[in-house]
TrEMBL record, chain A:
InterPro entries, per database record: MetI-like (IPR000515), MetI-like_sf (IPR035906), UgpAE/MalFG_permease (IPR050809)
Phylogenetic classification of the source organism: Bacteria, Bacillati, Bacillota, Bacilli, Bacillales
PANTHER family named among the record's database cross-references: BINDING-PROTEIN-DEPENDENT TRANSPORT SYSTEMS INNER MEMBRANE COMPONENT, BLL4140 PROTEIN
Name the record gives this protein: ABC-type sugar transport system permease subunit
Entry membrane topology: Multi-pass membrane protein
Swiss-Prot/TrEMBL keywords: Cell membrane, Membrane, Sugar transport, Transmembrane, Transmembrane helix, Transport
Gene3D superfamilies: MetI-like
Protein location: Cell membrane
Primary location recorded for the protein, binned into one broad class: membrane
UniProtKB/TrEMBL annotation, chain B:
Domain ABC transmembrane type-1: 109-317
Matching Pfam families: BPD_transp_1
UniProt key word Transport: yes
SUPFAM superfamilies with a match to the protein in the record: MetI-like
Record bears the keyword Transport: yes
Transmembrane segments: 48-70, 109-132, 144-168, 180-203, 224-249, 298-317
Compartment(s) of residence: Cell membrane
Membrane topology: Multi-pass membrane protein
Family: Belongs to the binding-protein-dependent transport system permease family.
Keywords: Cell membrane, Membrane, Sugar transport, Transmembrane, Transmembrane helix, Transport
Protein name: Multiple sugar transport system permease protein
Coiled-coil residues: none
Amino acid sequence: MKINRKSMYGYLFISPWLVGFLIFVLWPLIQSFYFSLNNMRITPQGLQFRYVGFNNYLDVWLRDMFFIQELLQFVLHIIVRVPVIVVFALIIAMLLNQKVKFQGAFRTIFFLPVIVVSGPVIDQLISQGATTVPMVNQGVIIGVLTQVFPMWFAQVIGELFNQIITILWYSGVQILIFLAVLQKIDPYLYEAAKIDGASGWECFWKITLPTIKPIILINFVYTLVFLANSSQNTIINLIYMNMFSATRGYGFASAMAWMYAVIIALMLLIIFFVFREKEGPKRARKVKRV
Amino acid sequence: MAVPKMRNPLEFIKSDRFTTKEKFRIVRAKIARFLFGFNDRAGFLLRLVIYTLLLCIGFVYLYPMLYMFVTSMQSLEDLLDTSVNWIPSALYTDNYARAYSVMNIRDSLLGSFLIAGAPTIFQVAVAALVGYGFARFDFRFKKLFFVLMIFSFIIPPQILMMPTYRLFSNLELTGSLNAFIVPAALGQGLNSTIFILIFYQFFKQTPQSLYEAAEVDGANQFTCFFRIAVPMAGPAFIIAFLFSFVWYWNETYLTTLYLTSRSNDLTTILLQLQQFDQNFAAMYPVTENSPHRINEGIRMAGTIISVLPLLIIYFFLQRYFVESVDRTGIAGE
C-alpha cells in the first residue's frame, strides 16, 4: 500500500514534465514525421496535405542542390572540430589542475565565452575578423598544407586556424567538466604510481586517461550536440529557409530535418562505438594477465 | 647525495666547510632542483611553461572582447588610420550614442529581461519539482522516463520546430511571452533537461533520514518538498536561475521564430543586434557625403551593449557559474 502511494506521488511530481513531453516532444515528433510524408501547401482555407510517400526524402537527396554539399561540409567540420575542442579542453583542464596560482581567475576567463556567446554576437565578431589570431598568417599555413595534403583537407585545416578563437570559445563548459573530474581523482593513485617509478607521462596514459574516459565520452556528445544545434550551422538555416519557401514548404523541410537528425544520430552512434570498442578487449586482456 | 641548506649564497661561497669542488657540485644541484623540481615540487621551468601557456590561451580567449571594446571606442578617423591599432587617439563615445539610438534600447532591454526572466521562473520551479520526483520516489517506468528526458535533449530541435510552431500559432501563443512561458512551465523550456538533472543530483545527495523523520512526524510529501527540500537546495536554485536566464537571454533561434514572424512590439536586444545593419540604414539613410555611414566601431558598440548586462551579472556572480559544473554531478559521484 505504501509503495503504491509513494509511486503515485512520484507521478504527481513529474507530471508537468510528462505532459510537456507528450505535447511538445512526442506529438510534434509524430506530426513532423507525418508532414515529411506529405506535400504541404498553405492555402487560404488552411493547410492542404497531399500524400507523397517518401518522395520528399528522395527530393532532399536527389533534387536539392545544397543539402548534400552542406552536409559534407558539416560532417567534415564536425570530424575536425569535435576532437580539437575536446583535446584542447583536456589540455587546459590539465594545466589548470596543477597547483596554479590565480586558478580562479583563469577559470573565470575560460568560462566567460559561455556567458557571452550567442548567435548575433558571434556573427558580428566573425564579420569583423575578431576571431582570428592576428599573428598567424593564414596564407602561409595553407600554402604549406596544400603541398602535403589534398586540397579539401588543407582547406579544412586552414579554416580551423582561421576560426581558432571561435573553436576555443566553444570549449568553456568542457574545460570545467574535465577540471571537476580531474580534481576528484584520488591523489594516492598517483603517489603509488610514482613510488613504483612511473613518470608523469605514464601516469597520464595509465591513470588519468582511463579514469576520465566516461567524461571524455560525455564531452564528445555534448560538443557534437552543441555544434549541431548552433546557429552558425548552415544546414539549420537551410531547413529554416525551406520551411518558409513558397515552393518547398513544411513537408520538404521536415524531411530534411529528419535526414539531418539521422546523420547526427549516426555520428553519436559512432562516438559511442569508438569508446566502447576500446574498453572491452583491454579489460579482458588485463584479467587474463592477472 | 645530500644537499645542505643554503641561507645566504655569499656566506656559503666564502665559508670553509666545503672544498671548491664540493661547492660547485652543491650549487649545481641547487640550480637543477630549482629548474626541474624534486619530489612533489614542480620545477621553475615546468611552472614557467604552464603559466606561459595559460597566459597565452587566456589572451586568445579575451582577444575578441578586447578587440570589440577597442574598436567600439574608435572614431572613423582612427579606424581608417592604420597607425592607430589598439589605443584610440581620443576618448570617443559617439559610437555608443548612435548604437544606443539604433537599437531602441528601452524597449529591447525590457523585452530581453521579460523573455529571459519570466520563463526562467517557471522553468526553475518546474525543474525543481520534477527533479525531486525523480530523486525521491520509485515508480514504474522511471528509468524509461529518465532516458526519454535525455533523449529529448539530444534530438535536433529542427524536427520539432515546424509542428511546434503550428501548434503555437493555432493556440495563438506566437508573438507573445506565452510562447516561452508555456513550454517552460511544462518542463520543456530551453535546456530544461539540464536543470532537471541538476535538481535531481542535488536532491539525491540530501540525506533520506531527514524526510523519513518528517514523515514520521506526519508531514505529507508536499510539506517535505517545500519545508525540507527547497530550503536546502539554495545553491541549485541560484545556479539554475543564472543559467536559465543567460540561455534565454542569448536565445535568438526561438525568438526569431516566435516574435518576428508577426509584427508586434516585443523585441529583444539580440534581435536588434541581428537586424542592426537594416535598422541603422533605416534610421540614417545613406545620402551623398553623409557622415552617418555604418562602420565597425558602431557595430562593435552595439555588440558591447548587447552583452553588457550579462557581463555585469557574470562579474558579480561568476563564482556560482564556475562552480555549477561540480553541482550537476556530471563529473561522477
